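Course exercise 7: structure representation. Students receive a sequence record and must write out the corresponding structure in token form. The form below is the worked example handed out in class, using Glycosyltransferase involved in cell wall biosynthesis (358 residues). Read each field label carefully; the graders check that inputs and outputs are placed in the correct fields and that the protein name is recorded exactly as given.

STUDENT ID: A-19
EXERCISE PROTEIN: Glycosyltransferase involved in cell wall biosynthesis
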Amino acid sequence: MRIAQIAPLAERCPPILYGGTERIVSYLTEELVSQGHDVTLFASGDSVTRAALVSSCSGALRLDTEIRDPSPYYLMMLDEVVARAHEFDVIHFHIDMLHYPLLRQMASPVVTTLHGRLDLADLQPFYRRFPQYPVVSVSAAQRLPMPAVNWAGTVLHGLPPDLLRYRAEPSGGYLAFLGRISPEKRPDHAIEIAARAGFPLKIAAKIDEVDRAYWEGTIEPMLKANPLCEYIGEIDEHEKARFLGNAAALLFPIAWPEPFGVVMIEAMACGTPVIAFRCGSVCEVIETGVSGFIVETVDDAVASVHRLGELSRAGVRAAFDERFTVKRMANDYLRIYRGLQSSPSVVRRDEPDELELA
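STUDENT ANSWER:
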């Protein structure tokens, strides 16, 4: 099958540091190539792939200090996708909504995976305007706020099985927090949980400028007041394997409708259990008593830290192998692609869509 994958340009594929969507696009692309498909990846020019790479910018936009406006690079990429659309059996977008006004110009079946949160009010009129184009969710919970749209399926994320090393015996004796420093990720709860449980905490996370005030006003003072808690900054893939693998548990104390949460399955791949708050996709990823504990409060989380001995790290890894490999993810997408090729509901460029305004 001739498949086009359209990635965000903020990070390369795969990202050097933080980057969830680009990471998943990269894993999916490489697995499809391994299965013998003819894949073209539209991504930043510094991406590393065995697919044919088409780029509209030389490097990841987030890491290029000279980039002020990403829009021109996305528009150039989309222009190239439209020009070459006839070359593909299916075109798979991962860039939210920028491409929607162009879809009627594409003769090939298209599908969009929605990687982000969908509970924002401004999204409702948009998706009501374009209800006919096939979309994929990354969890069932992610779908809940959406109006009626053309759901093609739900595909949970997956990772290469050899990406992160399984560690039967962690050597660190610490709790881990990995992701972003932001109010919805609740690193303040992670610090409180670790301090009350009497465990060291290591925080590996990026700080976006929009969250700088939260870092300086809330998290930094908490770290200074809790000497067992340490901020180590952003880490790369090689460092991540050690960081997660040597942790007694990953803390995932989110307070927002997390669409998926890749870090949970990254920890599971290492055999590291996850203590996660019941929110968003958590109940679809973590199985209490097997791959970790799902909790309601900080008190519950503290109690769960002291129950980690009840869990088998081999069992955590087995749960990953059963449900969250990249091969399973790619096969799920291939079923969707084949369904799109045979479905009369796919909108072609000679079929005008009905105007629907909010």
